[in-house]
Each structure stands twice: as structure tokens, then as C-alpha cells.
Design goal:
- The protein has a seven-stranded mixed beta sheet with strand order 3-2-1-4-5-6-7, covered by helices on one side.
- The protein has a single domain (2-190), classed as 3-Layer(aba) Sandwich (Rossmann fold).
- It has seven helices and seven strands, in the order βαβαβααβαβαββα.
- The protein starts with a strand and ends with a helix.
- The chain is α/β, with parallel strands linked by helices.
- The longest helix has 27 residues, at 164-190.
């Protein structure tokens, strides 16, 4: 059984979908706990719904990295999944979990990646630039924002006149469809 920690800062829709997928498919991948850097995020409700422990670490803890890294090692976590986690993972954690930290980004990297590019900001940029397609990138995390090895990309058409909200909805469908199964497949192939 591969022990996973999900890191989330927001509502937790991707975390929720991953947890449902794992429950429905009796996977050899097990989410042991959730970590957050926000005291009032929706991810707390997701943790409660799935009867999972959730742990808060301050942004300073993540910046220093040592408190978070020690905790993960004490919990015998093997993999980290970033599901809407809005902090850069510092080098000590990336190094300790080399090629074992996943992220999902709401664009077709390398387009619209990097510091400050997340959520609606990405979709606004896609529409403002008149792109005809967008999508998601599931990638490993390294020391640079959104530069790790891409595991999978999935695309959707951006219709003329489409609103940011409509694009968000299409991107979320791709995230919920591809993120859980890609994680499980990758972890099972590597271990």
C-alpha cells in the first residue's frame, strides 16, 4: 500500500474526486492524511466527509520546510499530491520526495505556468490571448514552478466568446476525469 498525503489550500474538489476514485476502485494507493496551509479552507469539509485527518502548517512552516518534512517522514508518507495547493514546495521537501510529488496545473504547460499563474488567472490569460485550446497538465514537481516532467496533458476546445466561468467548468471536468486515474497508474508503475 502506497501512503499518500494530499496538500490542498482551497475547496478541495480535486482531493474529493481522488478520494472517491480510490474508494470506488479499491486501489493499492491510500491517502493517509491531508495537509493544508489555510485555516478556513473547504478542504476541511472534504477531510471530514472522508474521515481523514487534516493537519495545518503555516506558510512559514512551508517556507522553512523542516517542520513539514519531519512530519511527513514521521507519518511514513511516500507520495505527495498537490490538489489546489497554492504554495511553492521548497527544495528540502522536493529533494526528500524526488519524483514523488505530483501537481495538476490548469493549462497546457509550458503555456501559462510559473509564479502567480493559478486558477482564474490562467483561464483569463487563455481567453485574453485568443487561444483555441486549453487543458490540464499533470506533472512532477521540481525546484521550479511548473517545470517538472509532464506525465499527462488533456485538452479542451476554447469556443469563441466562451466565458472564464465556462472554461473553468471544462477544465475542472478534465481534472476530475484524469487526475485520479493518472496518479494511481503512475504510482503503481513506479513502485
Amino acid at each position: 500500500m502506497s501512503k499518500v498525503a494530499i496538500f490542498a489550500s482551497g475547496a478541495g474538489s480535486n482531493a474529493d474526486r481522488i478520494l472517491h476514485f480510490l474508494n470506488e476502485n479499491q486501489s493499492s494507493v491510500k491517502v493517509a492524511l491531508i495537509v493544508t496551509n489555510k485555516k478556513e479552507a473547504g478542504i476541511y469539509q472534504v477531510a471530514e466527509n472522508h474521515q481523514l485527518p487534516i493537519f495545518y502548517f503555516s506558510n512559514q512552516d512551508f517556507l522553512e520546510a523542516t517542520p513539514v518534512l519531519q512530519f511527513l517522514q514521521e507519518q511514513k508518507i511516500e507520495w505527495i499530491v498537490l490538489a489546489g495547493f497554492l504554495r511553492k514546495i521548497e527544495l528540502p521537501i522536493v529533494s526528500a520526495f524526488e519524483n514523488k510529488v505530483f501537481n495538476i496545473h490548469p493549462s497546457l504547460l509550458p503555456k501559462y505556468g510559473g509564479k502567480g499563474m493559478y486558477g482564474k488567472k490562467v483561464h483569463e490569460a487563455v481567453i485574453a490571448n485568443g487561444d483555441r485550446e486549453s487543458g490540464i497538465s499533470i506533472h512532477l514537481v521540481n525546484s521550479e514552478f511548473d517545470k517538472g516532467e509532464i506525465i499527462l496533458q488533456a485538452k479542451c476546445i476554447v469556443e469563441k466568446g466562451q466565458t472564464v466561468e465556462e472554461l473553468v467548468e471544462n477544465i475542472q471536468k478534465l481534472e476530475h476525469e484524469f487526475f485520479p486515474k493518472t496518479l494511481v497508474q503512475y504510482i503503481n508503475e513506479i513502485k
